Predict the structure.
Amino acid sequence: MLLLLGALLLAGTWPDPWAAKGSGDVAIVSTGQAIELQDVLVQDKFTVIDVGASWCSPCHDAARALRGYAEQHPDTAIRVVNLEGEPHQSMSLPAATLAERGVLPWILVYAPNGERLYGGPKSDKALKKLDRARRKL
């Protein structure tokens, strides 16, 4: 799979990391348009906002990890901000401002009460913070 992804990226064809169907509460909320974070938080659930792009290889890894987590945890909603276009174009889209310091992927985790639990590029760290917060409930 990794070789196929590498070949596609070299060829200039980038698959959408969220194109695969699966279970879990996953929704694309932006393809680059500006969003209000408060508008995409899911009431009574942990909300993970994944800011990424199809040309970003680490974004594909994060998408797989986050989708798998959402499939196992029905109290978790994944909201995707998929920055479309070529790298230089997608990073100038309004929603790219969610990716602090221009780093992709950028993952934000919110508790059901709206408290921000994590903001950073590491899906494993984001999911650990989520697990810790879940144990406290």
Observations:
- The chain has one domain: 16-136.
